[in-house]
Amino acid sequence: MLQERLLRFLSICVLLGIIVFSGLNQQFHIQRKNGSLTAVEPRNSSGGSSSDCGPIPRTLHYTFSSEHAYSNYKEFVSDCLALNPDWQVYLWRDADAERLIKDHYPDFAAKFASYRGDLQKSDAIRYAVLHRFGGVYLDMDVKCLQPLFPRLKSYAAFVDRERWEQSINLFGMPLLMMNSAMGSAPGHPFFKYVLEKLKNMHGHIPLWTTGPKALTGIYYNWLSSQQAKQASAVKVLPSQVFSGSVDQSNPGLWSPCKKYPPEFGSRTPSETERHKLAAELSGFDIDRPDTHRGRDLRRMACASLALTNWRHSLHDNRTVGLHMYLHLGYGFGASRRGPKFNLLTSFPRIKLYSTAAGNTTAPC
Fold it and tell me: SUPFAM superfamilies this protein is in (predicted)?
């Protein structure tokens, strides 16, 4: 009788164990790599809706068409790797990007294939990489000035922001988000949301279809979405963190200032002129629309640029890196391109997607 009860008890335990394991296997894909099992991603491809995202992993991502990049970038990549010695570093080439999209974002594959230029593909893959693996993405022309952590460690997701003077003078926008520096915990739904919205962006101009203007519009839509209400916040970084400088190569930055008094376009305003400029800006805050009433925002931008002598970068204790605006990927930047070098042989720490599988951490 006792043996019969014991057998029944053991049978129930085994059955419960099977049920629990089956439930876990439904929640996670299990992948065997190098003899170990790794939870890769929840079956819910939206990336989850929990408000508790895990930490951003110590993984740095770069993109380029191949492992042969312009030598202009070598110093910047070297600085970032040296300041973050315990980080994994991945390079996403065109072939790697296509494979990642095919493997894990097949519903985006047709849109990705429709992109004509490298710039659109480079924009799109960074959103997929951050959603899938998490970490920090940087353009290769971002010069690191201090380690990425601890400054960026507390965020579940973040995006860079252009200096307001530049976004006002070039685009008439008080806020323009930059995809030159972004970060995320694995599976944060914002970056999956970006990919979904990119499907509806038509045309072949990167700025509008995959780049900063597209990202900014998608972010504002995200704020009112159901996903945003359930997810950890996306932090828009102050421009001083990565984009404290301005793009001196773009004449659109200073040409609007010609219609204002000379001090607004001066690279070296006198003390009297500086007092006038400061008076113009008194009480003004680009992030407070109530201070914009009755003001010409381009006039404010020109006054602010003149006060910083135009070429001055806004560095402070928040500054992690500096976006250098080399624009080597554009046709107009071709004359500035240096000879190419091999990223993989110059920096053996850099890995490719073939070794990235299984390196994810717990998703949102």
Answer: Nucleotide-diphospho-sugar transferases
Residues contacting 337, CB < 8 A, separation 6+: 70, 72, 328
Structural contact between residues 337 and 328, judged by C-beta atoms closer than 8 angstroms = yes
The residues near 4 (Cβ < 8 Å, ≥ 6 apart) are none
φ, ψ (nearest 5 deg) of residue 227 = -60, -40
Please give the Cα distance from 56 to 235 (Å, whole number): 13
Please state at what angle helix 297-307 crosses helix 271-281, rounded to 10 degrees.
140
Q: Are 191 and 105 in contact (CB under 8 A)?
A: no
What burial class does residue 7 get, using C-beta atoms within 10 Å of its C-beta: 0-12 exposed, 13-18 middle, 19+ buried? exposed
DSSP string spanning 293-355?
TT--HHHHHHHHHHHTTTT-----TT--EEE----TTSGGGGGG---EEEHHHH-TTEE-GGG
Cα–Cα distance, 132 to 124 (Å, whole number): 13
Tell me if 137 sits within 8 A of 188, measured CB to CB: no
- pTM of the shown model: 0.84
Which residues are CB-neighbours of 280 under 8 A, at least 6 positions away?
Answer: 299, 300, 303
**CB-CB contact of 136 with 182 (8 Å):** yes
Peptide bond into 189 cis (omega under 30): no
Domains, the chain:
57-244+313-354 (3.90.550), 255-307 (no CATH)
In the chain, helix, strand, coil percent, each to 5? Answer: 45, 15, 40
**How far apart, in whole angstroms, are the C-alpha atoms of residue 26 and residue 15?**
17
Q: Three-state SS across 222-235? A: HHCCHHHHHCCCEE
Q: What is the DSSP letter of 65?
A: S
Comparing CA positions, the residue from 251, 271, 273 lying closest to residue 262 is: 273
- The tens digit of pLDDT for each residue in 146-166 reads 999 999 999 999 999 999 999
Given phi > 0 = left and psi -120 to 50 = alpha, else beta, which region is 50? beta
Would the pLDDT of 36 be above 70? Answer: no
Of 219, 263, 253, which is closest to residue 325 (Cα–Cα)? 253
Q: Give Cα separations from 184 to 43, 250, 255 (angstroms).
A: 19, 30, 37
